[in-house]
Amino acid sequence: MNHVWALRVGAVLLFVAIWEGLARSGLVLETVLPPATEVFGQLPDVMSRPSFGLDVYASLYEVFLGAALGALFGLPFGALMGSNSYLYRLFDPLVYYVGAVPKIVLFPILILFLGTGVESKVGIAAISAAFPIAVYTALAVREVNPIYIRAARSLGATKTQLYRAVYTPAIMGPVLSGARLGLGVAITAALLAETKVANVGLGFRSIEYYSRLQIAEMYALLILIFLGAALINFGISSLIRRATHYQQQRVDASASVT
Amino acid sequence: MQPATGAALSVGSTTAAAPRPPSGGRRRRRGRVPPIWVVRLAVIGVFLALVELAVRMEFLNPFFVPRPTAVLSRMVVILIDVNFLKMVGITLGETLVGFVIAAVSGISLGFALWRFRPLGDAFEPLVAALFSSPIVLLYPIFLVIFGRNPAAIIALAAIFAVLPTILFTKQALGAVSATLLNVGRSINLSAWASLRHIMLPAAAPTIFTGLRIALTYVLIVVVAMEYILQIGGLGRVVAESALLFRTTELYVSVGLIVVISATFIWMINRLERLAQR
C-alpha cells in the first residue's frame, strides 16, 4: 500500500516538475504553457474575483437543476421500460442509439426555445442526464431477483408493500449509480454549453480567459473546475455507499460463506 | 472499480431472455405480433405525425419547430449532397485518426499496467477517476497547444477515449484464467508464445468491447467539439445553421447527426460481434 502512494505522489511531482521545467526552459511559449508555480499562484486570485461566486452559483444551479429534471423524466421512463420486457425490447435500442449521440448538438434547438440564459443550459444538462438515469433504472428494475418478489408475495405482501419493501431497496444501488453518472454528464453538458453561448458560469469564464489570453488564469480555473467535479463525484459516491450499506453487507456475508 | 460510463454504453441491445414475472406476456405467444422493429418504427412514426399535426394546427410555433415532413424530405436531399458527404468524410476521418491513436496507446498502456503490478495498483484507480471526470471541458488547453484546428479535436478525443481502452485492456489481461497459463507453462511455452497464443485470444473479446466504447466516445467528442469550435465536419454544419437562424436547416443537420451516429454505432456493434466470433 505504501509504495502505491509513493508511486502516485512521485508521478504527480514528476508531472509538475516537467511542466515547470518545460515552461521555464523557454522551449514553449509562455502563452501555451505558463509555469506550474504561476498557475498555482493564480488560484487565490481567480477565486477572489467578484465574478467567481456568481459563476459558481450559475454553474451549480444549471447542473443540479438539470440533473434533477433529467431524473424526473429518466426515472419513471426507466422504471416503465424495465417493468415490462416487451417495452424494454421496444425502447432499448432507441434509448441506446439516441443516448450515444452527442447531445450538445441539441443546444441550438434549446436556445430557440429557452433563450441564451441559464435555462438553455439547464435544458441541455437535463437531456444529457436523463439517458444514463433511464438506462440504469430500467436495468435495475429488470434485474430484481424474482425470488424476492415471490417470497414477498407468498408472505402476503400487498402491491404497495411490494414496491416499498422489495423493489425500492433492490434497485436503490444501480439507480443511484445512474444518478451519479447523470450528474457527471450534466456537469460536462452544462459547462460545455456555457463555453458556446453564455454570459455567466465557470465554462463561460474559462473560454473568456482563453480569448483574453489570460492563460495562467484559464489553467487555474480549469483546475478548480476539475476539483469541484471530483468533489461532487466523491460526495455522491459516499452518499451511495451510505444509502446502500445493506447491499454491501449482503455481499460481504455471501463472500464470507464461499 | 467498473468503468461506469462504459457499462452504460455497453448495455446495448443484448435482450437476453431474462426471468420475467409470471403475470402478463402469456397472451403474446398466441396472438400474431408484428416484428418488433415494425412497432419501433411505428412508435417513431406516430411521434413525428403528432408533431406534424401540432405544427400544422399551430400548437407549436413553426418558427421553433419545422414540420417533420419538411425536415425529412430535406434530410434525404442533403444526404446525397456531395458537400454534405464531404463533411461526413471529415468527421469520420478525424474520428478514425483519434481512434487509432487511442487504441494503440491505450492497449500499450493497459498492457503496461497489467504487466507491472505496482504501476497497475497505483494508476488504475487514477485512470478510472479521470474517466469519470469532465475531460472535454479541458478543450481550451488543447486550443492553446494545437491552435483552433482539427488536431486539437483529435487530441482531445483520443485522450478521452484512451481511458476506457486502458481500463478494459488491463481488466481483460488480468481476467485470463490461471489454468490456461499454467497449461502453457507446463508445455514450456516461451513468454512470447504464451502471450500470442493464450493471453491475446483470451483477452480479445473484452479488449474489443473497450475499443468499441473508445470509438463511440471519439465520435461523440469529435462531433461535439466540431459544433463548439465551428470547424471540421458534421458539428460545424449544426453550428452554422444555428448561426443563420434557419430553423429547418438546423433540425435537418441535428437529425442527420442522430441518423449518422446511430448508423455508425450500429456498424461498430456488428463489427464487434463479428470480431468476437
In short, what is this structure?
Chain A is an all-alpha fold. Helices cover about 85% and strands about 0% of the residues of chain A.
Instruction: Indicate the multimeric state.
Output: heterodimer
Counted up, domains of chain B total 2
CATH topology group of the largest domain in chain B: MetI-like fold
**What is the rounded distance between the termini of chain B?**
28 Å
**DSSP strand (E) fraction of chain A?**
under 5%
Profile the largest sheet of chain B.
Answer: none
Helix content of chain A: over 70%
Indicate the radius of gyration of chain A in whole angstroms. 23 Å
The separation of the N and C termini of chain A measures 26 Å
For this structure, the CATH topology of chain A is MetI-like fold
- Which architecture of the largest domain in chain B does the CATH hierarchy give at level 2? Orthogonal Bundle
Order of secondary-structure elements of chain B:
HHHHHHHHHHHH
The total domain count of chain A is 1
Shape, principal axes of CA atoms of chain B:
globular
Low-confidence stretches of chain A: 252-258
How would you describe this structure to a colleague?
The complex is a heterodimer of chains A (258) and B (277). By secondary structure, chain A is an all-alpha fold. Chain A has a single domain (30-250), classed as Orthogonal Bundle (MetI-like fold). Chain A contains eleven helices and no strands. Chain A has helices spanning 2-25, 36-48, 50-83, 85-99, 107-114, 118-142, 146-154, 159-196, 202-211, 215-243, 245-257. In chain A, helix 3 packs across helix 8 (159-196) and helix 6 packs antiparallel against helix 8 (159-196). Chain B has two domains: 35-65; 76-275, MetI-like (MetI-like fold, Orthogonal Bundle), CATH 1.10.3720.10. Chain B has helices at residues 4-10, 26-30, 36-56, 68-79, 82-115, 117-131, 139-146, 150-174, 178-186, 191-229, 234-243, 247-275. Chain B contains twelve helices and no strands. Residues 1-28 of chain B have low confidence and may be disordered. The longest helix of chain B has 39 residues, at 191-229. Chain B starts with a helix and ends with a helix. With 277 residues, chain B is mainly α. Chain B is globular. At the A-B interface, helix 1, helix 4, helix 5, helix 6 and helix 8 of A face helix 1, helix 3, helix 6, helix 7 and helix 10 of B.
